[in-house]
Amino acid sequence: MAAPTSKIETGAIPIVLSESQEVDNFAAGLMQGLMAGSRVRGIALVVVKDDHVMLQRTAGAIAPDMRFKGGGLSDVFAAVAVMQQVERGRLTVTADISRALGESNPHGVTLEQVLTFQGGDSSLPVRAVEKASGTGWPDYFAKAIAQPLGMTATAVRGAELETNLTDMSHFAIALVNDGVFQNGRILMPASVESMQSTHYTSYPLLPGAAYGFTEMRRHAWRALQHDGAAGDFASRLVIVPEAKLGYFIVVQGAEGPEFWRALDNGLFDRLLPAQGHDVRATPAGAPAPTQADAEAMAGPYESIRTLATDAAPLKLGGRFTARAGGSAELILTGSPSATLTPRPGGYWGSADGNLIAVPVMGNLMLSTGAYGRLALYKRPGLYLALALLALIAAGSLFIFERRGKQPRRLPMSPVLGLAGAGVIFALLSAVLWLLSPGA
Hints:
eight-stranded antiparallel beta barrel; seven-stranded antiparallel β-sheet; about 35% helix; globular
């Protein structure tokens, strides 16, 4: 049979990628893009969904089996251990912690308050578990958490937790999969649900805290977050209970909040597309802020530390200037930048619902962290005023010397000193002005 001689036109054959492949390609580009020009030498990421790893990706110097110190991540493991002892009836989270420690003098704080970052020493949950179980923390962790989850590279040495990316994927799966990884269980489903519920919030619309986690609200999703930092490594664990999804990021090399916001928000938005607006209830009867309220909150702000934000500090930071808009808006310029409109309930909110601001005792509590008024000595305007005063004083002395009716010779050192001070203040003011938000 003769071969066909006519030409058949065909279009491009579409390549259909799976969801995990698309996310993996996005994560690879995001990681490489953020590493370029930064001080970061390596990034590693693992995403888990239900009972499996959805993707694992590394870039730069970090390998999946590289061990690193977990820093504050120990808080999450301590919360799991507390819930294990609650299951066994040995601990009660609502009682004064002195009961759990076997002490007679009340501490004035409960286990629940410590687990939700309201006060008390962060070592108290570990001490309570040791007392309830009769086992030291390193041995307890190894037998009750690491062994069931197959976390063979993870151990507690003294007060330090050491782990790696692969082991943290096992832990994340257990937290999104009702306490189970493969054949190992660390908590019953009801305990996981209780641990991940909201147990404290300072304001109905602001993110609160679960046991061992602070909340993050984005695109109407409720997520739980905790950061760790030790030595040259910083890490971040995020769990989204409703989606049964979680991810863990570890970065080698120092970078600031803008880097972490770009990395975490970019990944979160790709994994969890917007599902509408947050429908949490607002405080009943509270009116929307007025123009006077907006003007009263105008001024420069910087991030401030609280017990809750200490649990997830990597994305927190920066300065912004708030000013009042013509319709009682609150316009933030700097880090973060946003236009917030007044809403019934006594707060301002962004159009996408991802950022809200609540005035509390002269400070602004944002859904991303707490911000206080910028101290006077940190304001560039102060240095500009001092520079102008120094230059005016130096100029006045110079004119007085040259134009006086009876010219007199003044020592030039004071004049030069004032002029030099003026120049220094002017240069410092220029640098601070360039670094300040809204410059």
